[in-house]
Amino acid sequence: MRPRVRPVNKQLIPSRFTTEYLNSRSRLAESGCVEWLMSTNRAGYAQIGEWPYNAHVLAYVLYNGPLSEYDIVRHLCHNKICINPSHLEKGSWKDNWKDSKEVHRESNRLRRGRPASNRIPIRVDGEIFSSKAEAMKVLKRGPKYIEKHGKPL
Predict the structure, then answer these.
(1) pLDDT tens-digit profile of 98-126?
(2) Using CB atoms within 10 A of its CB, is residue 96 exposed (0-12), middle (13-18) or buried (19+)?
(3) Cα–Cα distance between 53 and 42 in angstroms, integer?
(4) Which residues of 106-125 are buried (b: 16+ CB within 10 A; e: fewer)?
């Protein structure tokens, strides 16, 4: 990802963007998140009209302090429209990826509604294997053979 063009601090924020501005356009959810009620961008993050940064970045800077050009604001709650300052943390892209890796892996599994197909037990030529990979290794056959002759349990 490309770093932002410039650092963000309170002096760079237009005077109309205040904590009252944020509070009037958000609501407290049962989860403890303060959810943005206005528009979102294509990625689903809370957006503030013509302002070049997302609402959670503005909230972080107003409540917690400035950001350098390489800092990002991470959602500890993984709710893209949350602007609760206690749910936001300054970090790097790498920190964000590490933090969300398990969340994304779990959500991908749930979205498909089943575990990854290479982890499903399978019966091939009368033998039971814990996965397609194990069947290919033991039988010394390729994936096409396993697909054709294998039956999930």
Answers:
(1) 877 766 666 655 555 555 555 788 899 98
(2) middle
(3) 13
(4) eeeeeeeeeeeeeeeebebe
This prediction has a pTM of 0.63
The token pair at 137 is: 């290794």
The residue behind tokens 């963007």 is 17
DSSP code string of the chain = -PPPSS-B-GGGS-TT--HHHHHHTEEE-TTS-EEE-S-B-TTS-BB-TT-SSBHHHHHHHHHH--B-TT-EEEESS--TTB--GGGEEEE-HHHHHHHHHHHHHHHHHHHHTS--GGGS-EEETTEEESSHHHHHHHHT--HHHHHHHEEE-
